[in-house]
């Protein structure tokens, strides 16, 4: 197994142990399956606006390339490929990559998966979109990780990240609530001390030449059993930026 500089062996082992469950919507990754629709809808709308595409089309992003950093089992890579992106998914877990590759082969998704972290990619590999979704809280060096990922964003390209804010509310909901009370996730999945504040995320992106344009909160509605966009950044949030052309 590849052991990149920013990858945590403990985190790789944790997600490798759950890898077989990636595509089970009722299994250990159920929260991500529930989370996906709001993230995908947001990205479709935002990318259409930035790249001047018609979001109503089935495949509005034909001809554009996308790097999914920390792609796991491909839960985001495949839907984005279905929108027309040529997707490269990288993950530090070899088993994750194997499962994602097998699933893409079955569905015919236009995704290429590789065992790697962003600092291992060839400097010449550049993409129109770079994603770092729910991964920065699992790496050993957030600054190095995001600078390495940002180095692969083309001028004029779009960066989208997602993580959890380091607030007492996030500890209560994302750690105590999700792992110990509701048992949505295995205990120990998240370390609150590794959560990243929006100001920290924005600062690091700036060192990679990426200007933060907006933050969007995402919150769970227990009545509808759905996630929705919100103005609150207290727990889960998305960060969107771009690199000057």
SSE layout and pairings?
Elements: H1 9-17, H2 30-51, E1 65-69, H3 77-82, E2 86-91, H4 94-107, E3 111-115, E4 127-133, H5 142-150, E5 153-164, H6 168-181, H7 198-207, E6 210-221, E7 226-230, E8 236-243
Parallel strand pairs: 1-2, 1-4, 2-3, 4-5
Antiparallel strand pairs: 5-8, 6-7, 6-8
What count of structural domains? 1
Largest sheet: 8 strands, mixed
Within the CATH hierarchy, at the fold level, what is the topology? Rossmann fold
User: Which stretches of 5+ consecutive residues score pLDDT under 50?
Assistant: none
Tally of strands: 8
The residue-averaged pLDDT reads 88
How far apart the termini lie comes to 37 Å
Radius of gyration: 17 Å
Q: Give the neighbour order of strands across the main sheet.
A: 3-2-1-4-5-8-6-7
Helix content: 25-40%
Number of helices: 7
Return the string of H and E elements: HHEHEHEEHEHHEEE
In the CATH hierarchy, what is the class?
A: Alpha Beta
Structural class: alpha/beta
Determine the strand fraction and express it as a percent band. Answer: 15-25%
CATH superfamily: Vaccinia Virus protein VP39
Please tell me what the overall shape is.
Answer: globular
